[in-house]
Design brief:
This protein has 193 residues and is mostly helical. The chain is 78% helix and 0% strand.
Length: 193
Amino acid sequence: MSVRLPAPERKDQILEVALRVFAERGFHETSMNDVAEAAGITKPVVYQHFASKRALFLAIIEDVGHQMIESVTSASSAQGDGRTKTELGAIAFFQWVATYNDSFRFLFDSGVRNDPEFTTAIQNVLDSMAQAIAPLISNKIEPERLDLLAHGVVGTCESVARHLIVQRTAFDPQEVGRMVAELVWGGLREIVG
């Protein structure tokens, strides 16, 4: 029998448990019963907080995206030049990937990129990440070019992390973050001066 939790805590618990279940099994192979069972609650309790499996999945995309962006922006908002901020942001991203492997797999490898609604939600997360890091790159570049550069940085980090996760490669977030920052900054240095 589960402990009765206040509604906000129960909702957070469901999000956390559902993230693990979806990351492990994928969207289509996971049922609301699976989520309820893993959380130690009944299916009606899950439905009290989320109207459908789709609504739950979208809530997790938003929650995980927010956590990822917060990790990167809080680390890279320290004082310093663009290179330092790029390095701090990259290290923070790879630390997030190492620490929250299920979150990364859920967001980038949950097998739902063919679903337009999920694709849009994930793209919104990537756009928000690019918007958050764009000012860290430079404030002297026109917005359209800066947006492209920021998306390039996001894509580079995502691609490297995906490779590490797929290969099941153990990695040091500090080392990988520095290497990726060096790669990224090598290109940015030519543009931002």
